[in-house]
């Protein structure tokens, strides 16, 4: 079954792909591997969730936030590849949970993303994974996940799909200040004149 058809069958509508928050891109491809930048659970039209799992969110809420993060990551895959059937394997997931220091249920939280990948991609969605607790995440979000994906080459005879990363404008370069002459050289030049 086609991945797009599977999404429809599951009643999943992918959110709009979000732009990076700083000087980086959503994905970088090298060979047949696509490295996705970390994404959080923010969805268009909803307030950005902020807080710690174990204090502000319980396991079930954390699971849902990780699932929302997985939707954002699949959206990036769609924007980068054009066709989700080019995903041959979700290779590695790194899930970071903004949690209280005593919290120990990070795996159960990150299962929200892992379960989604298996639902959408089937066996291609089964992956190696790390789920860790951290003291904070950008903007106070409760979950951030990054992914490494194996992808198939473009189909023969098809024009390459413009990648979202290529459309992003590079950050403006700062001009370097002119270098001052080192003091040691200036002193030695004065000695030679004497």
The main pleated sheet reads as:
5 strands, mixed
Strand content: 15-25%
Domains counted in the coordinates: how many? 1
Overall helicity: 25-40%
Tally of helical runs: 5
The total beta strand count reads 5
Can you tell me the overall shape? globular
Query: Order of helices and strands, N to C?
Result: HEEHEHEEHH
CATH class: Alpha Beta
Indicate the CATH architecture.
2-Layer Sandwich
Distance between the termini: 87 Å
- Structural class, judged by helices and strands? alpha+beta
The CATH homology group name: RutC-like
Whole-number mean pLDDT: 85
What does this structure look like?
This protein has helices at residues 3-10, 59-81, 106-121, 164-167, 183-193, and strands at 27-30, 33-39, 87-98, 128-134, 143-151. The protein is an alpha+beta fold and 194 residues long. The chain has one domain: 2-Layer Sandwich (60s Ribosomal Protein L30, Chain: A). The termini are far apart.
């Amino acid at each position: 079954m086609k991945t797009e058809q599977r999404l429809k069958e599951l009643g999943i509508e992918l959110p709009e792909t979000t732009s990076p928050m700083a000087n980086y891109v959503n994905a970088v491809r090298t060979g047949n591997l696509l490295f996705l930048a970390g994404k959080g659970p923010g969805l268009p039209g909803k307030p950005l969730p902020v807080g710690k799992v174990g204090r502000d969110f319980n396991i079930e809420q954390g699971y849902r936030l990780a699932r929302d993060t997985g939707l954002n990551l699949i959206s990036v895959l769609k924007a980068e590849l054009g066709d989700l059937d080019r995903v041959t394997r979700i290779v590695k997931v790194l899930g970071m949970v903004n949690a209280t220091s005593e919290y120990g249920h990070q795996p159960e939280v990150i299962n929200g993303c892992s379960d989604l990948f298996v639902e959408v991609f089937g066996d291609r969605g089964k992956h190696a994974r790390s789920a860790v607790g951290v003291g904070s995440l950008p903007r106070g979000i409760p979950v951030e996940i990054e992914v490494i994906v194996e992808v198939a080459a473009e189909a023969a005879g098809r024009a390459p799909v413009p990648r979202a990363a290529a459309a992003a404008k590079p950050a403006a370069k700062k001009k370097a200040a002119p270098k001052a002459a080192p003091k040691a050289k200036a002193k030695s030049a004065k000695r030679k004149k004497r």
